[in-house]
């Protein structure tokens, strides 16, 4: 956020505008949220939920597929 906001502030000073600082801060927040989501991924399912495994830990077979009985 500080890097993109700082870059926007410098660009605003150079071009004598007021828009790039806000755009830089918003872009910085967006990139920060993206990095957190990529690093930590999705939430693990609850231990009691059905995950496609049998009680002894083996993967269960999927249902029939096209062309198989």
Automatic annotation (TrEMBL):
UniProt KW keywords: Membrane, Transmembrane, Transmembrane helix
Transmembrane regions: 20-40
Organism domain of life: Bacteria
Tagged with keyword Membrane: yes
Disordered, as annotated region: 42-69
Protein name per the record: AtpZ/AtpI family protein
Species of provenance: Blastococcus saxobsidens (strain DD2)
Highest classification ranks of the organism: Bacteria, Bacillati, Actinomycetota, Actinomycetes, Geodermatophilales
């Amino acid at each position: 956020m500080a890097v993109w906001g700082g870059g926007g502030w410098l660009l605003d000073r150079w071009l004598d505008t007021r828009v790039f600082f806000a755009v830089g801060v918003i872009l910085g927040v967006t990139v920060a949220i993206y990095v957190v989501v990529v690093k930590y991924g999705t939430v693990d399912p609850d231990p009691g939920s059905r995950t496609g495994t049998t009680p002894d830990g083996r993967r269960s077979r999927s249902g029939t597929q096209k062309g198989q009985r």
